[in-house]
Fold:
Amino acid sequence: MSQEDQVIVILEDSGQRLVAPKGASLLEVLQKFGLPIRSDCGGKGKCGKCRIVVAPSDSVACPTSCELELLPKEDLERGLRLACQCEIRGNVVVRAEEEVAEEGLGSVKTALGGSYPSYPAVRRVVLKATEGKGKVPERDLLGMVLRRIARTGLPLDAMWDVAALRDLSEPRILEGNVTLVWHRQKGITGLRRGAAYRGLGLALDLGTTTIAGYLCDLEKGEIVSSASITNPQGRFGEDVISRIAYASDNPQGCKILQELAVKAVNSLMDTCLRRVGSSPEELDEIVVVGNTTMLEIFAGMNPHSLGRAPYLPLCLSPLDLRSGDLGLKVPPGTNVHFFPVISGFVGGDALAAIISQGLHEEEEPTLLVDIGTNGELVLGNRDFLWATSCATGPALEGAHLSCGMRATRGAIWKVWQERGKLEFQVLGPEGESPRGICGSGVIDTLAALLSLGILLPSGRFVEGKEGVVHDDRGVGTAFQLVKKGERGAKRNIYISLKDVRQVQLAKAAMYVGVKFLMKRAGLSEVRRLVLTGAFGARFNWRSAVDIGMIPPEATRGEVRTVENAAGLGAVMALLDSRKRDEAKSIAQKVQVVELAEESDFSSAFCEALEFPGSPLELAKTLEAH
Structure:
């Protein structure tokens, strides 16, 4: 590329200068250099989240039709643009909007602790320096070690990972005590100098939005530290469909997504280990759960077959891979166990949740609802298990909403009506200014607006009501929850008609999914409901019933929330290897309902798009049943 075809992109906040090709989009340039910028739609100009300020204005192409539709005129005039639509024409200075910057560490999915049954797949065996020394003429180092192993009870014919053999070749490794890391399935996976008795394991919940990790003491069966981090793959699309498309359509797409996930996991592992004063040398095994797409990408496998009918995963069986082949910063022979999956869109995280909640052992049918970027539903007991996935989309986690954000500091997460007016609570310390609204806040708001008669069952705002914003024709286009300046807000925070439509699509998918599972199981009601997931465990389920997201007949018995059922299942399988056999058995038992293939799905979905009537009418309906 000649100098005539190059331009300089200067990042105002850091002063960093990037050399980029003329004609590229700013989103491509920023992502290429690993700079965090949110792009929920995968760079298609639909979400409006990759907002940046550019100067001078003539250094980029004129605004596209997408920008003219999504960005107010006054914002365009001050240089606000969408990075994915911004074609570079000359040297340009770029500043990201405050709301665009991604959070580093998350604060969800980590409220797990306690002790669990321990029967790990891996254990440590210390070989004393004096054992077997000088009794038989030594012919090779391996023979020397095998004579030491003979007294430990370990099988002499155990396989040796190449990493363990390389450890054995290190100078003077056998002059003192040496510790073997022995895996029941894979044999000797590593050696450690000295008598290193402590062995740790990491349970990973690889979510589309959030990655959570739980560091465990394998012998004691305890969680010793935990952490979560935002999945950086989100810059290539908030949902799995966008990431499947990116991995399939770009020659290096899958590699880029895999490396981003590995980098995040390495950072998370480092955080967990530092908190307990440990090092990677003490980590002996990793267990990973997640949806099918996330597991395949993390394993370095292209998920393209999940993006087209019949949506087949590469394999349903569990995988055991070497950490060194994945790029994880732990001893290279460390085993990484990937949970089996149920189908293309019902993954290992659903299996892990079944195990942690004991659905397969209960007499009473239980409905498990894992709500996140992807909605996974399981209904069953010890006699049957039905599962499905529903396209809730990223709207429930703040994406694709006008003022949406994740449930982080500054997010309005709780809303209620008091004396005819809406009150709200903001995440963060007391006095925190609102920056936007997350999914739980949106659901609360819509439920409150329905009860006040401001929102109609069709999803339209009632013009003339306080807070309703209308266009030149008098049509209600939004409800303003917070005015700029109120409680320190730097902008108006509102819910638009488009936002309402996004929630209607998500809630209809969830509602129909539950109803279809109940129909397959022959149940008219569910007496036990478990809500989990980064979103599911933290929202007001009563508001979800009020807006028609969860059928009332699913909430007539016990309703409880679990912080992260999938993560807990991963912990249990890490500490007790027998749970892995259990997972394989359950996976073969689960029957999947493919909603799109049901003949009456379309009509049921269209009906579910409507919001229910007022709470008073809903109460009368419940009494009638």
